[in-house]
Amino acid sequence: MDKNYGGVIWTNHALDKMRQRGMSQSDAWATWRNPQQSRKANTPGAWVYYRTYANEKVEVVAKKNEKGQWLILSVWSRPVSGEKPKSESFLKFFFRKLFRG
Question: Phi/psi at 75 (nearest 5 deg)?
């Protein structure tokens, strides 16, 4: 995993949690970049970004540092049980956007 993936800074905590949870850094980045929902986090100045992939809801906590650079503070996911998926996979989304212009 890359500490500067996607042009943002990833904290060691976020990278460790993704490794522990077997999460894709690209899905976490896509969630932050193109969320379906967002809300203010408990941490001052931070936001929680959400996106659903198949039956998994990915949540990313991020904020800007004093230099105006985005920091990914934490990442987690949880199963979405009993609900119809609300979105397509990131790859399908990417190709759909790429080929539709």
Answer: -145, 140
